[in-house]
Specification:
There is one protein chain. The protein is an alpha+beta fold. 49% of the residues lie in helices and 23% in strands. The protein is built from seven helices and eight strands; from the N terminus they run H-E-E-H-H-E-E-E-H-H-H-E-E-E-H. The protein has helices spanning 2-9, 27-37, 40-56, 99-106, 110-124, 128-145, 184-209, and strands at 13-16, 21-24, 59-66, 69-77, 92-94, 148-150, 156-164, 170-178. The strands form two sheets. It has a six-stranded antiparallel sheet, with helices on both faces. A hairpin with a 4-residue loop joins strand 1 (13-16) and strand 2.
Length: 210
């Protein structure tokens, strides 16, 4: 209650008398905008992401880890499906079951990755043995091909790769689309090449800026 009172006094929470509870105030939006305005790396990556999304009519996203979830920092949604439309900057998705999360984990130092995997195992409970096998398969794909894929939402597939700033900050990058009507393997390979090449292009641009 003391923490709630402090947040109210600071202007970050307001009391909703109709709902008899607290809600975030507009000051939180200002914080988000301030955070985004200070991210030069994202400004440099966004034109490349938009170019791929517009050229292929697919969805492209860039995300980072927060606790045990991935948070979208930028998102260009141009795919024909509405499945991914609600994924906008600030959206949170699982780490364990998504291509974004697995690509990010693959880029982590071994000790940090093992600590995160233990937290994810505790969260997933009885589902963990199956998910752990899927994560291991994704790590193998990333090592062999430079990308991994996952069907996190029914009817859609996402392919992801890791990307890193020269200073060491890690991100995960993905493209997503409807599951194709035809064979899956050629689709994954072609879109995996796209996300891998985009990741490389972003890293090259970052090297010229930082």
């Amino acid at each position: 209650s003391r923490l709630t009172r402090s947040l109210v006094d600071a202007g970050f929470l307001s009391y909703d008398h109709g709902e008899q509870g607290y809600r975030l105030s507009v000051a939180c939006l200002s914080l988000a905008l301030s955070y985004r305005a200070g991210q030069a790396a994202l400004d440099a990556a966004l034109p490349l992401m938009r170019g791929l999304a517009e050229g292929r009519r697919i969805n492209v996203g860039l995300a980072v880890l927060d606790q045990t979830e991935m948070v979208y920092l930028d998102s260009v949604r141009l795919g024909r499906s509405s499945l991914f439309r609600r994924l906008v900057p600030g959206s949170r998705i699982p780490t364990a079951t998504t291509a974004l999360g697995r690509a990010y984990m693959s880029s982590m130092p071994a000790g940090e990755r093992q600590a995160l995997l233990r937290r994810l195992a505790a969260e997933q409970g009885s589902h963990w043995p199956r998910i752990q096998k899927e994560i291991s398969a994704s790590f193998r794909d990333l090592k062999q091909h430079g990308y991994c894929w996952a069907e996190w939402q029914q009817g859609a597939v996402a392919i992801a790769a890791s990307v890193r700033e020269p200073g060491g900050q890690r991100y995960a990058l993905n493209v997503s689309s409807q599951i194709p009507n035809g064979p899956m393997e050629p689709f994954i390979a072609s879109h995996g090449k796209l996300v891998r090449e985009l990741a490389k292009a972003i890293e090259v641009r970052w090297q010229t800026l930082f």
